[in-house]
Amino acid sequence: MAISTNWEQANRSLTITMDEKFDYSKVQEFRHAYTDTPESPNQIVVDLAETQYIDSSALGMLLNMQKFFNENGIKYHIVNSRPQVARILKISRFDKKFVISER
Amino acid sequence: MRILIVDDEPVNRSLLLHMLKEEGYTDCFEAEDGTEALRLAEKHQPDLVLLDVMMPGMSGFEVAPKLKTLYKASYLPIIFITALDDRESLIKCLEVGGDDFVSKPFDRLILAAKIRAHSRIRLLSKRVDKQNQELLGFQRNVDREHTIVEHIFSNAIVNNKSVSRFFDYKISPAATFNGDLFLCAASPGGGLYFLLGDFTGHGLASAIGALPVTRIFRAMSVKGLSVSEMAYTLNGMLLELLPPDMFFAAVLVEVDASGKRLTVWNGGMPQMMLKSETGKLVRTVDSRHMALGILEQSEFDSVCEVFDAQYGDQLFSCTDGLMEITNDEGRMLDEDGLQRWFLAAPHVTAEHLYQQARAYLGEAEPHDDMTIAIYRATPLYELKDNIQLSKTPFEINMKLTSADLQNEHVLETIMDMINSQQGLNWIRSNLFTVLTEMFNNSLEHGLLNLDSSIKRSPEGFIAYYDEREKRLAALQNGYISIAARYDPIGKALTLIMEDSGQGFDVERVTNPDLDSSSGRGVTLLRELCENVEYANNGSKITVTMKV
């Protein structure tokens, strides 16, 4: 299993589905997931349903993604995070930068 | 062919004996009255009896039924040799249990032909008797084996009551063995898993696969694996195990500790329904995959549906045995019919649905297993209390030099060691975050002297990790030592990590701003651990996690 992406042309929405582990080993793969879209997205959804393990470099990667698009009105969502992962996002106050929700 | 001759007249006996000898029947013996006849019959087990009617003491009419009682299991031909020739007597010969009669003086050729005809029936009867005995023996063996297998099944497939009490379920096999399977287990992360599945067919052949599925389901539940991974692993195992024409349709569901978050994989099972407390259909979960044990691992799709229920919502699932019941008019219940039944009232129990199904079937017996499982969304936090913690203290020490550090799976080893201890698996997600944080800190700043400030720009962020890779590959000296100490009385896990580097300014990294792409690790450690202590200018860090 690895990272998978889904591009919806109609509303230019990109969904990135992470696998079990979201850590520094995913730096390149995660970057490709959002740089390789056909157009600039309106919305990016990161699906963490599978993710059990996360470290602070993953948090860095998520923020870095926002910096890459330079805040031009894109909506960022993190969906389906497990309780332990949700707690880490909360500790790091990610709710201020991402819409953390169910799908 | 053994023949018993019964006659009180010695002349008649020797006449018969002589004739039989000429016909090739040499295994003959004689009785001069009924009592002796019964005694000899018991002793020598004849295949045919030639019986006189008029004898002193017991008459032939009395002896015949007694002889027949001796031979309940098989056919013993009795031919009366009689001087009586009135119709009543001849009819009586047959009514008391005789099979034929010959009038005295007997016609030799006719008697010989009758003996041959009856011995044919006798042989046939003996063969049938033998086959019956074999069948009986076979049946007894099968029964005994079934008893053993039933015993194994009933011991192997038992759901823990503390978990199964969150379900309303009904299991109804069509035969002794069930090709349907319902399993549930607590998850180490709080919450629970359940599996409802249906092997092709029913009976023993389809039930046999339930054992390995149960084992794997339990093992994976203990590890807290994701539903996707469970589905993938089960598919691989069943693909290897099952013959090509057999497979296992199943739904796999994980419910998180809140009791509301549902992750569902449905492969080849009927539509699941989520019903609100007021009885409205909230959503359905249709089968999006092929059953387990069909697709190659490379083709297998483990994508799940994730959704949230409200407390009081009921998630209904059943096997196709219920949906495919047919009434007197030959109409199948089907998905629509079932939906009507389930949505008929806010609370419809599994037992009620089962009784409704039996009524629908009328006189007919169900020809497939039927299983219903209803989960009602409730907080599951109490399941956590069932987790037993290991009572054995331990300490793990490792010193990792450059070659070990270049192995990207190096932390997994210590994680696996810790997680293998009973109950500690529960904190595995947090343990991963904490250990990775400590480790990356020691490695990136202590040994590789990387500067986090370059991570601030998007390009710098990537450059930082490129540089990390480069420096790590070139690393020749230095080490990181890790100690993990578990205290079962204090229920605490202490982790100590020390590196051979120069250390860093701890104060500077403890309060990062919100946008910063680095420095978040220390905050995480302080939140996830009871205690965090730096020593030796940051090159040694000790943390304690509550278990």
UniProtKB/TrEMBL annotation, chain A:
What superkingdom heads the lineage? Bacteria
Q: Fetch the Gene3D superfamilies from UniProt.
A: STAS domain
Q: Which CDD domains match?
A: STAS_anti-anti-sigma_factors
Q: Where is the STAS domain?
A: 3-103
Kindly list the residue ranges recorded as spanning the membrane.
none
Q: What is this protein called?
A: STAS domain-containing protein
Q: Source species, please? A: Alteromonas ponticola
Starting at the broadest rank, the lineage of the source organism is:
Bacteria, Pseudomonadati, Pseudomonadota, Gammaproteobacteria, Alteromonadales
TrEMBL record, chain B:
Which InterPro entries does the record cross-reference, listed alphabetically? Bact_Sigma-Reg, CheY-like_superfamily, HATPase_C_sf, PPM-type-like_dom_sf, PPM-type_phosphatase-like_dom, Sig_transdc_resp-reg_receiver
Q: Which residues carry this modification: 4-aspartylphosphate?
A: D52
Cited SUPFAM superfamilies = CheY-like, PP2C-like
Xref: Pfam families: Response_reg, SpoIIE
Which SMART domains would you find in this protein's record? PP2C_SIG, REC
Matches recorded under Gene3D superfamilies: 3.40.50.2300, Histidine kinase-like ATPase, C-terminal domain (3.30.565.10), PPM-type phosphatase domain (3.60.40.10)
Which keywords has UniProt assigned to this entry? Answer: Hydrolase, Phosphoprotein
Response regulatory domain: residues covered: 2-119
| Superkingdom of source | Bacteria
What's the protein name? SpoIIE family protein phosphatase
Organism of this sequence: Alteromonas ponticola
